[in-house]
Design brief:
By secondary structure, this protein is an alpha/beta fold. It contains eight helices and four strands; from the N terminus they run E-H-H-H-H-H-E-H-E-H-H-E.
């Protein structure tokens, strides 16, 4: 069995969570309406775009999903350009590899956003043996353990040999 180390992305690998709120406050009220935004704003952090579309729909949003996702992607390009890779994360990745850990990344973010983040990691982007976008793969969102369980299996590990680095209560 392999030792495994699984990273969350937003807030762990990249400091995007300090950037997102500024833009969400701008574009989401315009996109879904101020009242819907106020009702669901506490459900945004750590949730997939697909799930946010469902939540907005439960509050009466009648919009094409493709347009909804495209708007998020447009702002994600700004957010991930401004957000910085967490200081020391690439050193940690190298250390884990030297200790024979298999590495993975599990994120609620879209694969496009993951790719934007990995492009900023000049030394270690190719060190992950498995990458899972819960949003794009249709895997149950956090706090469901489904994504982590799938990843542990893909890495040839088991829970007792796996460390997961998370930053949000939803992920924990």
């Amino acid at each position: 069995m392999n030792k495994a180390f699984i990273f969350d992305m937003d807030g762990v690998i990249i400091d995007s969570e300090s950037v997102w709120p500024k833009y969400e406050k701008k574009f989401l009220p315009k996109l879904i309406g101020k009242n819907r935004y106020l009702k669901m704003k506490d459900q945004i952090l750590g949730t997939t775009v697909n799930k946010l579309y469902e939540i907005a729909g439960s509050y009466g949003l009648r919009m094409d999903k493709k347009r909804f996702v495209q708007c998020f992607d447009d702002y994600a390009k700004i957010v991930y350009k401004k957000a910085k890779i967490t200081k020391g994360i690439e050193t940690l990745i190298d250390k884990l590899i030297s200790l024979n850990f298999k590495l993975a990344l599990v994120s609620s973010s879209r694969q496009l956003w993951i790719d934007m983040t990995l492009a900023k990691m000049t030394k270690t982007a190719d060190k992950f043996q498995y990458i899972l976008s819960l949003n794009d793969e249709g895997v149950a969102t956090k706090p469901s353990p489904e994504g982590y369980e799938k990843t542990i299996k893909k890495l040839g590990s088991k829970p007792s040999l796996t460390i997961i680095l998370e930053d949000s209560q939803r992920g924990v």
